[in-house]
Design a protein that fits this description.
This protein is mainly α and 95 residues long. It has one domain. The strands form 2 sheets. The protein has a two-stranded antiparallel ribbon with strand order 1-2. Strands 3-4 form a two-stranded antiparallel sheet.
């Protein structure tokens, strides 16, 4: 009988593991090593160990990025409005 074999290729896969280049600890790829807190040979501090100045500068950078994104969205909306007006004007001329 050939029925009921639709999902036979679904199997549980073992997780991919790589060795940390700093300490040699096995970790998941593209994640910070839990032992030495490094990724791509750069050290990262957990938020609890950061100084107040670092946290303030990170917040300032985040705020600046948000302002840039708002400006980009506003510009995109203005372009869309201009394109709609132009399309309407072309339709009126074509009549």
């Amino acid at each position: 009988m050939k029925g009921r074999k639709r999902r036979t290729h679904y199997t549980a896969l073992s997780p991919t593991v790589v060795l940390c280049p700093q300490c040699g600890e096995p970790t998941r790829p593209h994640t910070i090593c839990p032992k030495c807190n490094s990724y791509r040979r750069r050290e990262f501090l957990p938020p609890s160990m950061r100084s107040e100045d670092e946290i303030k500068s990170l917040k300032e950078v985040e705020k600046a990025n948000q302002q840039k994104n708002k400006a980009k969205k506003k510009l995109a909306l203005q372009r869309n409005k201009a394109m709609k007006k132009l399309a309407l004007a072309r339709k009126k001329r074509a009549r």
